[in-house]
UniProtKB/TrEMBL annotation:
Protein name per Swiss-Prot or TrEMBL: Protein-L-isoaspartate O-methyltransferase
Source organism per UniProt: Sulfurovum zhangzhouensis
GO biological process: methylation
One Pfam short name: PCMT
Cytoplasm keyword on record: yes
Residue ranges the record marks as coiled coil: none
Gene transcribed to yield this protein: pcm
EC number: 2.1.1.77
Family statement: Belongs to the methyltransferase superfamily. L-isoaspartyl/D-aspartyl protein methyltransferase family.
């Protein structure tokens, strides 16, 4: 796999990438800008790659799968937990556009700097930013339309559902499954679970 177009084509052929807006974001936000120099040649291989601190930039197919379930759209206010390289934050930033916003949170200081540096290539204002995660998961008291989590929890963190607007979605790995949560009312939600994934651990 040598170039971005063939990587994207293969994820489309696998019927994982489907939505025009998500495909366009993959085309516009070049993964090569988010992988370390030593892995530049592998930027378009469909695999996770090391970004330092024992963390990884996620596998493209997995990111596509999670984003198709998250269904981000123009104008959304999005929380991206586990910003790492900044790749998913930049993709989401492209999708939400001028009226939306994306907050990426990352717990490891050096990766906060890496993510900010990489994101700055794509986003030049405050709408989309990466900050250091606090002691509590997410941003308690805030509400988002969508929450994406790129590290795996042992069990579903209910506190993230509190941070969703009604109608909002949370996509989060729990152990080796990806959970898709849709908040249907103040105290109810639907849960879909898709098994068969590996992530770095969510630490909190
Ligand atoms: N979206 C990233 C994926 C990075 S891997 C990318 O595209 O590169 C997941 C990241 O989650 C790691 O960098 C890890 O440090 C971070 N992480 C783990 N627990 C976290 C928490 N509680 N809050 C914020 N970030 C967390």
């Amino acid at each position: 796999m040598k170039d971005l177009d063939s990587l994207i084509d293969s994820i489309i052929m696998d019927r994982v990438l489907k939505s025009r807006t998500i495909i366009e974001a993959f085309e516009n936000v070049d993964r090569a800008d988010f992988v370390p120099d030593m892995f530049k040649e592998s930027a378009y291989v469909d695999a996770p790659l090391g970004i330092g601190e024992n963390q990884t930039i996620s596998q493209p197919t997995t990111v596509a799968f999670m984003l198709e379930h998250l269904a981000p759209k123009k104008g959304d206010k999005i929380l991206d937990i586990g910003a790492g390289s900044g790749w998913t934050t930049a993709i989401l930033c492209h999708i939400v556009g001028e009226e939306g916003s994306v907050l990426g949170l990352e717990r490891i200081g050096s990766l906060v700097e890496l993510g900010k540096f990489n994101l700055a290539r794509y986003c030049h204002d405050d709408r989309c930013r990466i900050e250091k995660a606090g002691d509590k998961l997410g941003v308690p008291g805030e509400k988002f339309d969508k929450i994406l989590v790129s590290a795996s929890a042992d069990e579903l963190p209910e506190e993230l559902i509190d941070q969703l607007n009604i109608g909002g979605k949370l996509v989060i790995p729990v152990q080796n499954s990806i959970e898709v949560i849709t908040k249907t009312s103040e105290d109810e939600y639907q849960r879909e679970s898709i098994y068969g994934f590996v992530f770095v651990p969510l630490v909190y």
